[in-house]
Amino acid sequence: MTYEKSYSRDIRAYRFPEILYCPACTYLWKDKQFAGLQKGELRCPECNHRLVPSRFIVACRHGHIDDFPYSRWVHRGAACEKNQGGEPERLKLFNINGRTNLGSLMVSCELCGKTRSMQEAFVPGALAAVYKCAGRQPWLEHDADSPCTENAVARMRTSAGVYMPVNISALNIPPWSTQVNKILFRHLDAMEGKSDEALQSYIERKIHPYLPKISNKQILDAYRVLCTEQNKPHPASLRELYEEEYRALCEETEDENADFSSRRISPPKKYHMLLDSVTAVDCLTEIVTMVGFTRLQGWDGDMNSPCLAPIISRKQQQWLPAIDMHGEGIFIRLNEERVSDWEKQNQHIYQLMMERIQENKIHCENASPRYVLLHTFSHLLIRSLAKMCGYQSASLKERIYSTYPSGENMAGILIYTASSDVEGSLGGLAAQGKSEYLEKIIDDLLDEAEWCSGDPLCMTSTGINGQGLYGLNYAACHQCTLLPETSCTMRNLLLDRAALIGRTEDGTVGFFIL
Questions:
Q1: DSSP letter string over 412-428?
Q2: Phi, psi of 263 (to 5 degrees)
Q3: Buried b (16+ CB within 10 A) or exposed e, 22-41
Q4: Residue 252: how many CA atoms within 13 Å on its side-chain side?
Q5: E runs forming strands in 220-296
Q6: Nearest one of 331, 285, 293, 256 to 170, comparing CA atoms
Q7: CA–CA distance from 144 to each of 87, 135, 140, 426, 430 (Å)?
Q8: Cβ–Cβ contacts within 10 Å for residue 153, how many?
Q9: What is the largest CA-CA distance in the chain?
């Protein structure tokens, strides 16, 4: 039931679950029974105690959710034999013998006297005989039952797997990140279609006061460039998005007033043959967009997946909720020639890993031995940086720039931190990009990669003996390589520290041993 008033400016709300529970007398009620009778906080008609949402719901992997079918459950799929006149159901949810665990929780029908344990509902396949997923999405304005082939399962309403948000992020890069363009964005609609003379007048009155150090001509030129960029095709895929970011990170862009500012730093002399460039990103803005959510399982990375539930509408919208995150980072680009040579030497080592990616439908468009190398280097670098820069590893994040099929050559990693605070961070991470600091950090991560408390088992986990989900990690475990889920972009998969230091058992050549 949707609760709104025509004269109210409040956001419309939908009460879910629709079945309510009385903690005092243990009766179950449907909220539609109170339509037009009670307002605000609903109370039990039997004892006047405040009602609370029912503890249990049913959900399926296609993002649907519904109230738990208590009546069908207790009557084993049939109607109550004592309820012939269509009276309101009289169901109770209670614990026996004063206990509080799930095993003692029972649902009963007061009319016919039938009782059934709620614990049985959590047995796999238990609901199949009494409930078929109705395809409900009650948070949407126009919710209607739609056929669904997935089997629904019972869950606690507050269970973590009931709602798992899916976010995609992008960096705000030039030309969009400059201070001039940020202000011009707010006025694009008002400036559209005006003559040069009218634009000059508008800029003088509305924009120049916010940019006193920039001439009207420079602002007008920036507006024309912005219009040209606006008309260009925007990135239509993750590949195009990452390639644009990679090009921006490879260039130096010093602008203390912009959302993106970077400066080139000399790579450590010890590793200058392996690292092409190091860039300290003193200021960056990450736009984090929520594209949907999943239930019961994680997202596979496919934007067209039926498991990705919509937030606003079943129809594709022109906007999605997003937030700006401000921070800093270090970008390291590896030498393309050295990476290509390493990839050729180790192609056979990771052949089985790449086959498993395809077999198990793990979505990673640019999965390759190169990705394993960059991803592992990123993880070990984050673990090492966390000891030096003042941030915990859970506060650091990664972006892996690895070549996509039929795409530009990329071989870089961005380690960054970002928060919703407008001031961003304090510079402790970008400062670690200095040549003398970074050399010690890489030395330390390579030393730590040599040994793991899980060795020799960890280091020899390769090929058919791979570790982790579907065997998609080789020499990588929680003791040596894995990171908190907030830091990793690839679910802690496609990792192998031998990619950096080598492995004698199968002839893996270490990139930093070349």
A1: EEEEEEEESSTT---ST
A2: -140, 140
A3: beeebbbbbbeebeeeeeee
A4: 7
A5: 261-265, 275-294
A6: 285
A7: 25, 8, 9, 50, 51
A8: 23
A9: 87
Q: What contacts 91, CB < 8 A, 6 or more positions away?
A: 27, 28, 70, 71, 74, 107, 108, 109, 110
Q: How far is CA 394 from CA 166, 208, 485, in A?
A: 18, 42, 8
Q: For the chain, give me the number of helices (H) and strands (E)? A: 11, 17
Cβ atoms within 10 Å of 425's Cβ, excluding its own: 23
Place of tokens 């009602």: 51
Q: 202: which 2 tokens? A: 């508008």
How is 434-476 classified by DSSP, letter by letter?
A: SHHHHHHHHHHHHHHHT--TTTTTTTT--GGG-BSGGG-BSS-
Give the H/E segment covering residue 505: none
Listed as ranges, residues in the chain with pLDDT below 70 are: 1-12, 36, 38, 85-86, 143-145, 175-181, 185, 229-236, 254-257, 422-427, 514
**Which residues are registered as beta bridge partners of 285?**
326
Name the phi and psi angles at 63, rounded to 5.
Answer: 85, 5
Structure token digits, residue 429: 């991470």
The pLDDT assigned to 5 comes to 47
Residue showing tokens 């921006």: 248
Of 144, 125, 128, residue with least CA distance to 136: 144
The whole-number pLDDT of residue 427 equals 65
DSSP 43: B
Q: What secondary structure does DSSP assign to 154-216, as a single string?
A: EEETT-GGG-EEEEEEEE--TTTTSHHHHHHHTTHHHHTT--HHHHHHHIIIIIGGG-TTS-H
**Residue 90 contacts residue 158 (beta carbons within 8 Å):** no
Q: Which two tokens stand for residue 377?
A: 């280097």
Assigned token pair, 145: 């039952």
Structure token digits, residue 385 = 């940086």
Q: Which residue in the block uniquely carries the two structure tokens 């799929």?
A: 77
DSSP 8-state class, residue 150: S
**Pairing relation of β-strands 153-156 and 56-59?**
antiparallel
Quote the CA–CA distance of 467 and 482 in Å, as a whole number. 12
Number of Cβ atoms within 10 Å of the Cβ of 259: 23
R_g over Cα of the chain: 29
Res 130: pLDDT: 87
Bridge partners, residue 186, by sequence: none
Q: How far apart are CA 373 and CA 376, in angstroms?
A: 5
Q: Is 64 strand, coil or helix?
A: coil
Which helix H or strand E contains 405, and what residues bound it? none
- Residue pair 454/474 in contact (Cβ under 8 Å)? The answer is no
Residue with tokens 């003692």: 104
